[in-house]
Write a structure and sequence with these properties.
heterodimer, A: 392 residues, alpha/beta, Rossmann fold, seven-stranded mixed sheet, 12 helices, 16 strands, globular, B: 329 residues, nine-stranded mixed sheet, 9 strands, 35% helix, 14% strand
Chain lengths: 392, 329
């Protein structure tokens, strides 16, 4: 059913149709509309699920962890400080290999306190062992949410679906909400291989000493890398069912002859596409959205940058003392590649600062630099007046 | 004709199948009060349970991978989330229509301090969980640091006794009163000195639909500095001096107490343990702190009406059948 939804409501409906049995969350802007939406669907009898309104994000993550190991499909959503308060549990969930889906309505991290969008929250837990998928629009948010439930079940690795706070969560746009029948065909009932059951007692979460710990952690790394296959397969199967993909590992747009590329995460991809059409229609340009940030798809990235001389990485987060987080990882992934493009780092859109179309010429200017630009924090306030009007 | 074998009582008992939730052979210290209490609780709770265990000694000594002491489904996640984890499992069980009872285990660190918030939230939301706090009055797993459950004036590694300080400066948190303020269906204290009482309280809690709380006083020979064989004696002295009130509350109201047969001075409890050694001398601070602790014990006795009356059962295993009705108002 194609209709206009607020992003959060579209996600809430998609989650409800995935038949979660336990949802636990704590309100935090800009995530709140999602769990409010789920609570209302449950209250109206449109979803059969226990909603636990807990006393903190820390408890929310702990509750869904408990529900998942007790054999129930479980879901939570949060953002920003909530992600950080959950951080200890997020590491624990991944380490215990528990299937869960979490929507992160990406938001800046305090201090200074700021409720608007950037990606610092997701970056803060990039090494927790979760699959992290970034969505460029609300259709992808819906499709990725549904796929996430299947990916987590197949891999027994938790999945974080990253959706730009406000920019997507509070945006009304037409979304095709898959039917219950379609989702039921795609998503088998929840099953967890180590469900806690008195008829078959298991001990989970044991103490592991130095003699085994390295192997356990290395396994997590290996399995997370291998999860790329399940992510691609879920997207392919989804495309067979509904006729559209949600971005695979990396989404790419532009001619093969392009020598300059821009790689980004999340909804700014749409801005860049429009900017390319409107502002530089005659410049061959390859735009890329990294959908799968964890596992980091190094091979797919190497293939995606083939033929480029310059790659600008635009990101909405910063690693103080280092610079761009994504740019650093991209450089590492491309290191040693023959004819690898020069990688330029750009940081913009922190704490909800608007990223207008005008950013694209500035990004392309980085590619003209004599030396690769390590980290350029683009101050959009000081940008020249927009060609298409300052209100864009 | 088949031959009749006559067995003595001991042999009959040995042959009787008896459920054990927690096997021996784990790595607890000799005389560990917590392992004893956990064994009694799981035995009384029976096999149809799931345990959510906080980080702490119990988790460490019972599950060094690839070994486990548990015969019931058991999960450890973190130090401060046992109650929330249990709440999540209980919610799933309820949603699935499974009758299994949920237990949460934590020490006093995981209960009084770092896990207090999730405990309060779990009780407030009314989850059907029996939360058991094994109270050994300090952070034993990390090497005997003070907790908010550590008694006043006890020496720990972070509240050491010295020339300027007589051990812990603060009072033991009255957690039971805070729990009682949640008006939960059932809350009780118990002690390893009275195993039958623990079992009776676990069975009561198991029969209740809703959040229940049991705090078991569990001496730690290493942290309290007493010989391993004195665990029960120390625990019993805690009861008989009034320092460890053993009570039951329903909806926050006192309904029964374990009566004290003969009240003993607090020094009978203090002198058994190295953590109070600095309080036994004649210097004015030691004398003052002993008076302070005696006043706390007297306060407990007064508040809960702990002194035995004519006709009360004596403190034995059958003292589990404690006086109903509690303090006279």
């Amino acid at each position: 059913m194609r209709a206009a939804f607020e992003g959060s409501q579209a996600i809430a409906r998609a989650v409800a149709r995935c038949r979660p049995q336990v949802v636990a969350a704590y309100p935090i802007t800009p995530q709140t509309h999602i769990v409010e939406g789920i609570a209302k669907l449950v209250a109206d009898g449109e979803a059969d699920c226990e909603v636990v309104s807990v006393e903190s994000e820390f408890a929310a993550a702990s509750v869904v962890l408990g529900a998942a190991v007790a054999g129930s499909r479980a879901y939570t959503a949060t953002a920003s400080q909530g992600v950080l308060l959950m951080a200890e549990v997020l590491y624990n969930i991944a380490g215990m290999r528990v299937p869960l889906v979490l929507t992160c309505a990406n938001r800046a991290v305090s201090a200074p306190i700021n409720i608007w969008n950037d990606h610092q929250d997701a970056m803060a837990v990039r090494d927790a062992g979760w699959i992290q998928l970034f969505c460029t629009d609300n259709q992808e948010a819906v499709d990725t949410t549904i796929q996430a439930f299947r990916i987590t079940q197949e891999t027994e690795l938790p999945v974080m679906v990253c959706v730009d706070g406000f920019i997507l969560t509070h945006l009304f746009e037409p979304v095709d909400l898959p039917s219950q029948e379609q989702i039921d065909m795609f998503l088998p009932p929840y099953r967890f291989s180590r469900t806690l059951d008195p008829r078959r007692p298991l001990t989970l979460g044991t103490l592991v000493g130095p003699e085994h710990y390295t192997e356990v952690r290395a396994q997590l790394h290996g399995d997370l890398e291998a999860a790329a296959e399940a992510i691609l397969k879920a997207d392919a199967d989804w495309a067979d069912l509904v006729g559209r993909r949600a971005g695979g590992l990396i989404k790419s747009d532009g001619p093969h002859t392009a020598r300059i590329g821009v790689l980004t995460l999340g909804s700014v991809y749409g801005t860049l596409q429009e900017a390319a059409r409107e502002l530089v229609p005659d410049t061959p340009l390859r735009l890329m959205a990294l959908r799968c940030f964890r596992p980091f798809p190094a091979e797919a990235l190497r293939a995606a940058v083939d033929g480029l001389t310059d790659l600008v990485v635009l990101e909405r987060a910063i690693g103080p003392g280092m610079g761009g987080i994504l740019a650093t990882e991209v450089r590492a992934a491309l290191a040693g590649l023959r004819d690898a493009p020069r990688v330029h780092g750009a940081v913009a859109g922190l704490g909800g600062r608007d990223i207008p179309l005008d950013i694209l010429p500035r990004l392309l200017a980085l590619a003209d630099a004599a030396e690769p630009v390590r980290c350029s924090v683009i101050d959009l306030q000081k940008m020249p007046p927009a060609r298409l009007g300052a209100d864009r | 004709m088949s031959k009749t074998t006559v067995l003595d009582l001991r042999e009959l008992r040995r042959r009787q199948p008896r459920f054990t939730g927690m096997d021996p052979g784990h790595r607890a210290c000799q005389g560990c009060g917590q392992s004893l209490a956990a064994h009694i609780v799981t035995e009384a709770a029976g096999p149809d349970v799931i345990v959510a265990n906080a980080t702490g000694c119990l988790e460490v000594f019972s599950t060094p991978w690839p070994q486990t002491a548990w015969r019931v489904p058991w999960i450890h996640s973190l130090f401060e989330n046992a109650a929330a984890l249990a709440a999540g499992i209980e919610t799933a069980l309820k949603q699935q229509g499974r009758p299994t009872k949920m237990l949460a285990f934590a020490g006093d660190g995981g209960t009084f301090d770092i896990g207090f918030q999730t405990l309060s939230g779990m009780i407030e939301r009314g989850h059907n969980v029996l939360y058991v706090c094994f109270d050994n009055e300090a952070y034993m797993n990390t090497g005997v640091q003070r907790s908010s459950s550590t008694p006043h004036a006890a020496a720990t590694t972070t509240s050491p006794a010295g020339r300027m300080r007589p051990g812990k400066r603060h009072l033991k948190k009255d957690l039971l009163a805070i729990i009682a303020a949640h008006h939960l269906p059932y809350a009780a204290t118990a002690t390893v000195a009275y195993p039958g009482d623990i079992k009776a309280k676990v069975r009561r809690a198991m029969a209740i639909e809703g959040p229940t709380f049991l705090m078991i006083h569990a001496p730690c020979p290493l942290g309290w500095v007493h010989a391993p064989e004195l665990t029960i004696k120390v625990a019993r002295a805690g009861v008989e001096t009034g320092l460890t009130p053993i009570v039951e509350l329903e909806r926050g109201k006192l309904v029964s107490v374990l009566p004290i047969r003969e009240k003993r001075p607090v020094t009978d409890y203090l002198r058994l343990q190295g953590r109070f050694r600095h309080l036994l001398g004649d210097d004015p601070v030691a004398v003052q702190e002993r008076e302070h602790l005696q006043a706390l014990a007297d306060h407990n006795i007064e508040t809960y009406g702990l002194l035995a009356r004519e006709g009360d059962v004596r403190d034995s295993v059958t003292a589990a059948l404690v006086r109903r009705g509690g303090a006279i108002r």
